[in-house]
């Protein structure tokens, strides 16, 4: 059925008018209330510089280096059975999934985009992979939300378990409709006769030979791309923080937690943490759903990286909603059993953010930069090992 060109032109005109009107109203609101916009942008800038930037920069650089050195391709061979059979994705998708789970968005989308630029993934697979690897940073869940906002580190571990479990369940659920694996790059048959570790080493060596960049150039390119990605992330955080502040200023009847949670992750989590007295199962379930949703700001950050790939915001948001439902349900199921097993503990890295902590304690991820980096590396290796052992289970069951 042919589309009506006139109808498409009319729809595009309406979108242009709406976007132009919204931009004009936003500028007018900022001009009429510059103090509100300035305070919101300053708070967002501090959040980005002290938490987001130091938590993401080392792992983004490491991801770029490992993709170029071939380590991710070797990990892809190890994870091939699990990714192909469970998620209907090629093996190298496993490294992208681990990156998203350990570094948070938009690191997963960045890793998927890098593989696509190396012609390792089709546009359809890149879009799917960017969607299922969209996780919140464990640093944000454990330190900012758990220890900082809730003043309950044990609750942070519950949220992290539910967040990861819900994301993997959502990825498995969405993969059920992708029964065909025709668009998944196939593994040559002769490779199956070699030991798994040997195939992984060969894949890593071949990928490194194809890249061919020197260490100095590779490090420079990795830092440059990572900083550029984080600059885009910071811009989104600041813009949405200003938008939320203006909406709450001009429309006070709209619940602040609803507006904040829909648009931006950290502001919404802060509003939810203040809406309850003490840590309750309902509060944790709502926070878990919010972390899985990621905020419109977080979704657009990832989509801006894979904008040339075959994925729409509607499909991306649908996956986030499914993740939110799973995460909230898992939180309600595991909160009581885990409550007694996880005694109160102090934050693992640094102090609690000043805006959430008593007695004016300050927080900066730069104070624990090395610890954050090492913690993420160890966590990533543990996830790769766990997924590899699961892959070996699939191989043995097939044999």
UniProtKB/TrEMBL annotation:
Domain of life: Bacteria
Residue stretches making up the Nucleoside transporter/FeoB GTPase Gate domain: 52-142
Species name: Paenibacillus algicola
Coiled coil region boundaries: none
Spans traversing the lipid bilayer: 12-31, 51-79, 129-148, 154-172, 230-251, 271-296, 317-335, 373-395
Keywords in alphabetical order: Membrane, Transmembrane, Transmembrane helix
Protein name, entry field: Nucleoside recognition domain protein
Pfam families, per database record: Gate
Matching InterPro entries: Gate_dom
